[in-house]
Amino acid sequence: MRQTLKPLLIGLASLCPSPIVGHMFTIEHEFDATVVTLIDEGETHLQGDVTVNAFDDCVTIEQLDPHTDRLNRITLSMRQIRDIGAALNLPEGVYRLPDKG
Predict the structure, then answer these.
(1) Residue 44: pLDDT band by 50, 70, 90 thresholds?
(2) Which of 4, 34, 87, 90 has the lowest CB atom count within 10 Å?
(3) Is 83 within a domain?
(4) DSSP codes joined into one string, the chain
């Protein structure tokens, strides 16, 4: 897995109120990306699968909208991924992270 994505996923998982047991996800290492697919399993209020594609220069998050049959995609720069990872461990406020030289 791309090293820049791993801290973000660990941080997001830490927000879950209880340990995740029995939930399914996949990890695939493609030629140009690491692809993580999250499968929403359960009985009610299910959402479509979420696919996270980690490339060298960006990360995309995709989910099919069953109502419109359209794929929704968000593209984040590596700087935005770094900022999300940092934000998971900071209190409410406004921050500016220093550039890595």
Answers:
(1) confident
(2) 90
(3) yes
(4) --TTTHHHHHHHHHTSSS---S-EEEEEE-SS-EEEEEE--SSSS----EEEEE-SSEEEEEEEETTTTEEEEEEEEHHHHHHHHHHTTS-SS---PPPP-
